[in-house]
Design brief:
The protein is α+β, with helices and mostly antiparallel strands. It folds into 2 domains: 99 residues, OB fold (Dihydrolipoamide Acetyltransferase, E2P), CATH 2.40.50; 73 residues, no CATH class. It has 4 helices and 10 strands. Strand 2 and strand 3 form a beta hairpin. The longest helix has 13 residues.
Length: 208
């Protein structure tokens, strides 16, 4: 792994999949574009320190009728010595391509369904599933009762979203090697839960 000192400028881009993050790393050996999941946690700003780079490679893509060729650096580690967060963090709109769109996942072929299984499915009418946050009415001997399922549903959804990180603690460190879309969902959910990202330790801390 190559370790270089430099400055990483992070910028938010508003794309069709939502907001994504791009970086520009300036080092004594040159300037590189960074689009690793690791920096998707960072706020807009300038970060100076030592960067562990595992790969430098060329990437080309076409976006909005324009072909772009980039020299990218894949960052594995970041050790910051200083940072300057931008006052304005309004996502901009540029010709940058979201990394999610560069390599779309293959669409799996539908599994064949036998005629008997199809007929059995059509003959069984499942009760409707209430939406998240709905009030479910039930009957018992004493009359109708209400059961609010929103908190339980949200907890189950969070458990599925965070996997081994659940239940969350006051300090959470995300794994940037997981699927990028899942990584973004975890990041956004932590923000909604009141967590704040600390760049120096690369951890999310719950507000006191």
């Amino acid at each position: 792994m190559l370790k270089l000192s430099g400055a990483l400028t992070v910028k938010s881009i508003d794309g069709r999949n939502g907001v994504f993050i791009v970086g520009s790393l300036v080092t004594p050996f040159g300037e590189f574009t960074v689009k690793d999941p690791l920096i998707e946690q960072y706020q807009d700003g300038k970060y100076e320190g030592d960067f562990g780079i595992s790969k430098i490679y060329l990437v080309s893509y076409v976006s909005r009728g324009r072909m772009t060729v980039e020299i990218r650096a894949k960052i594995e580690t970041i050790a910051l010595v200083s940072l300057k967060i931008s006052e304005s963090q309004v996502p901009s709109q540029t010709g940058e391509m979201d990394p999610l769109d560069e390599a779309p996942p293959p669409t799996p072929a539908p599994e064949p369904i036998s005629l008997m299984a199809h007929a059995a499915t059509q003959s069984v009418q499942s009760p409707p599933i209430p939406p998240t946050g709905a009030v479910v009415m039930t009957e018992d001997a004493s009359g109708p009762t209400e059961a609010v399922s929103s908190e339980t549903d949200r907890g189950d959804a969070d458990a599925g979203l965070f996997g081994p990180l659940w239940p969350l603690v006051d300090e959470v460190k995300l794994d940037p090697t997981i699927d990028r879309a899942l990584f973004r969902s975890q990041r956004d959910r932590l923000k909604a839960l009141g967590y704040t990202f600390q760049p120096l330790g690369q951890v999310w801390l719950q507000a006191a």
